[in-house]
Design goal:
Elements lengths: L1 H36 L1 H7 L7 H33 L2 H27 L3 H19 L3 H14 L13 H6 L12 H49 L9
Helix pairs in contact: 1-3, 1-8, 2-6, 3-4, 4-8, 5-6, 5-8
Length: 242
């Protein structure tokens, strides 16, 4: 009776965990779409700069997020079906999906910890390149790109140490924002991406916790179902007529 009670309790916990994992998969999908098609990200990635360093991060984040969300939903689905049907094979597949996501997220967290400013530097490098190219020549296309960045981030060029506003800022900053958009664009880009990455880090930690909990529950149920099937078969004999 005690073992059955623990198994029943673990099944309920795994079903609830699968529900939250599905919601996490949905949250990762939404965050990935925002990162891919959000105005602040797409305007930097869409800059027609041959060696755009941010475009690589932009594409990797999109495809990684889509794959991660699919595996999360698959893990939740396999765990739910395995719990209902008491399938050892499906339970092992669910554990494997949880383990894959856990290893991937640990690697992502390690990369984030050791390279915490790479993405910010890439975005600021793109802005620096556009700004300097506009400053060197009169390219109307680059000037339009710089004006779009200023309008999107509500900033206005680079802050001068003397507090002066150059001709580039006067021409590329929207007239309606000249009084308010006085923030240094480099600082504004850094602050924006830092807030975004803080949200990503929080979602990353929550997902890792659920992956660990999911692995514990699926492994416990796998052993319970496996040994329960072996005990049910023990002592049964098949008599053959001769």
């Amino acid at each position: 009776m005690g073992r059955r009670h623990w198994v029943r309790t673990t099944k309920c916990q795994l079903l609830v965990t699968s529900l939250f994992v599905t919601l996490l998969g949905l949250a990762v999908t939404i965050l990935t779409v925002i990162t891919r098609y959000g105005a602040h990200f797409s305007i930097i990635s869409g800059v027609s700069y041959e060696a755009n360093p941010y475009r690589t991060f932009h594409n990797v984040a999109f495809y990684s997020g889509i794959c991660l969300s699919m595996i999360l939903v698959l893990a939740a689905l396999l765990s739910t079906v395995a719990t209902v049907r008491e399938s050892v094979c499906l339970m092992a597949m669910g554990f494997f999906c949880f383990a894959i996501v856990f290893c991937a997220l640990i690697q992502a967290a390690f990369w984030r910890y050791t390279n915490n400013s790479v993405a910010e530097d890439a975005m600021m490098d793109v802005y620096d390149s556009v700004y300097e190219e506009v400053r060197r020549n009169l390219s109307s296309f680059r000037r339009q790109e710089l004006a779009t960045i200023h309008e999107t981030f509500l900033c206005c060029g680079k802050q001068s140490p003397f507090g002066e506003t150059g001709g580039i800022e006067n021409e590329t900053c929207p007239s309606e924002h000249m009084g308010t958009a006085t923030e240094d664009c480099l600082q504004e880009i850094q602050d924006f991406l830092k807030k975004h990455m803080d949200f990503v880090s929080a979602l990353l930690i929550i997902t890792i916790c659920f992956m660990v909990y999911g692995m514990i529950l699926t492994s416990f149920l796998w052993f319970s179902i496996h040994f329960s099937n072996n005990l049910d078969r023990r002592g049964k004999y098949v008599f053959r007529e001769t």
